[in-house]
């Protein structure tokens, strides 16, 4: 499951206030022109090298759209088999990951260290008012206590009978930035469209597809990959993980007879409007997370969904709806923890479905994220809902679970 909460501090709070500063509905739209998509990706590459606090850029769908709109060359798989959702980066990707455009190419390492490992956790979309799935890569060196994110996180709204659950791609050149610490590389000035296109084509990408078991083959260019079961996924989900030179711009899903599978035409489930609230003075709401009252907290803020609608047949039975989300900042450790209430998206009055990737903890009733993904999530059932906490320290996550007061008309204890 996704972490994203260590070392964010005040920047995450500012980002949250900018995102949810007033009554909001679903924010951005991906209906961008090819040039604006490329410009957005180029701007993020510049910010990527600026040494800002806050970690990796989440390029996600925007990066895929930019590449598909501009990259002329097809992606070349480095291997003819699928890797798992966690494992070692293959040697071919380590020795020649590609180079970032502009001045960054002169100051960053040109290869990745041996023993680099990756994990791609899949988690519910925790944005309040959303029902869907998110995933994003994490990289770590053997024996390293800290992990670092690779960028390229992607989220997808839920759709009934969808063959694609969530997919994304991350350039391994993103990982090179971490190797320049404690003196982050900086990129000043604009990058040309041509330099960005070259970077997209030449970089090695870690690509992943999480699909339903209706998909028997995923064809990337001329290479076919067989989706495999993974213990961190739901039983009827499968995954393909590939390393390619260049971001895949053409791929097809095939059934067991080798026929293309078309995605159902219905639109994705829309998000629900949300409201920013004060955890210390909560209004009546369908879901809410109160103040934790833990020592050392420097700030708390919260976003709640304005309603918890029944989606019924519009979503699959395993989909969760994020009814409320709160953040808890601990300035002394420069860490921000996140908590969320998750409900059954089909019918919020029913018990929430199981969370993928969690196993029972040594504490009765608690569930922990798998060790392969550095274990930054703890959750427990609260009546018909899940209360989920993300953050770097397991003991502090457990303390938050114990001290957060869950309330709301949609919660049935």
Question: Would you mind describing this structure in some detail?
Answer:
With 413 residues, this protein is of the alpha+beta class. It has two domains: 228 residues, no CATH class; 134 residues, no CATH class. The chain has eight helices and 24 strands. The protein has an eight-stranded antiparallel beta sheet with strand order 15-17-18-19-23-22-21-20. Strands 1-13-10-9 form a four-stranded antiparallel beta sheet. The protein has a four-stranded antiparallel beta sheet with strand order 2-3-6-7, with no helix packed on it. Helix 2 packs across helix 3. The N terminus is likely disordered.
Features:
2 domains; 18% helix; 24 strands; alpha+beta; eight-stranded antiparallel β-sheet; four-stranded antiparallel β-sheet; 413 residues
Concise structural overview:
The protein is built from eight helices and 24 strands.
Strand content: 25-35%
Q: How would a textbook summarize the main sheet?
A: 8 strands, antiparallel
Order of strands in the sheet with the most strands? 15-17-18-19-23-22-21-20
Count of runs of 4 or more consecutive helical residues? 8
Radius of gyration: 21 Å
Mean pLDDT: 74
Q: Structural class from helices and strands?
A: alpha+beta
Terminal Cα span = 26 Å
Helical content stands at 10-25%
How many structural domains does the protein architecture include?
2
From the spread of the alpha carbons, the general shape counts as globular
| E-strand count | 24
Q: Are there runs of 5+ residues with pLDDT below 50, and where?
A: 1-72, 181-188
């Amino acid at each position: 499951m996704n972490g994203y909460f260590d070392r964010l501090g005040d920047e995450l709070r500012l980002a949250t206030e900018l995102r949810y500063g007033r009554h909001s509905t679903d924010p951005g739209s991906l209906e961008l022109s090819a040039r604006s998509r490329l410009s957005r990706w180029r701007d993020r590459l510049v910010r990527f090298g600026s040494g800002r606090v806050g970690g990796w850029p989440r390029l996600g769908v925007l990066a895929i759209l930019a590449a598909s709109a501009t990259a002329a060359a097809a992606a070349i798989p480095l291997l003819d088999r699928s890797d798992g959702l966690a494992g070692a980066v293959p040697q071919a990707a380590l020795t020649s990951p590609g180079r970032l455009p502009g001045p960054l190419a002169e100051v960053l390492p040109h290869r990745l260290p041996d023993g680099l490992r990756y994990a791609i956790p899949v988690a519910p979309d925790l944005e309040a008012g959303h029902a869907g799935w998110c995933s994003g890569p994490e990289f770590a060196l053997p024996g390293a206590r800290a992990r670092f994110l690779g960028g390229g996180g992607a989220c997808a709204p839920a759709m009934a009978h969808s063959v694609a659950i969530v997919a994304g791609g991350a350039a391994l050149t993103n990982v090179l930035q971490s190797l320049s610490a404690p003196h982050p590389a900086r990129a000043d000035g604009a990058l040309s469209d041509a330099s960005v296109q070259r970077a997209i084509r030449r970089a090695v990408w870690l690509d992943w597809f999480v699909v339903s078991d209706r998909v028997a083959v995923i064809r990337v260019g001329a290479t076919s990959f067989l989706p495999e079961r993974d213990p961190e996924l739901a039983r009827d989900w499968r995954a393909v993980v590939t390393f390619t030179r260049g971001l895949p711009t053409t791929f097809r899903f095939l059934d067991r007879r080798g026929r293309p599978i078309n995605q159902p035409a219905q639109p994705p489930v829309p998000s629900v409007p949300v409201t920013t609230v004060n955890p210390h003075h909560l209004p009546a709401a369908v879901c809410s997370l109160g103040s934790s009252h833990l020592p050392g907290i420097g700030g708390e803020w919260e976003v709640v969904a304005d309603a918890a609608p029944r989606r019924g047949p519009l979503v699959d039975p395993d989909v969760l709806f994020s009814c409320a989300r709160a953040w808890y900042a601990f300035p002394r450790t420069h860490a921000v923890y996140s908590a969320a209430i998750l409900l059954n998206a089909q019918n919020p009055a029913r018990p929430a479905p199981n969370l993928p990737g969690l196993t029972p903890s040594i504490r009765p009733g608690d569930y922990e994220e798998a060790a392969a993904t550095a274990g930054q999530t703890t959750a427990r059932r609260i009546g018909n809902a899940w209360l989920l906490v993300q953050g770097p320290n397991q003991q502090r996550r457990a303390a938050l679970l114990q001290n957060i007061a869950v309330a709301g008309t949609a919660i049935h204890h």
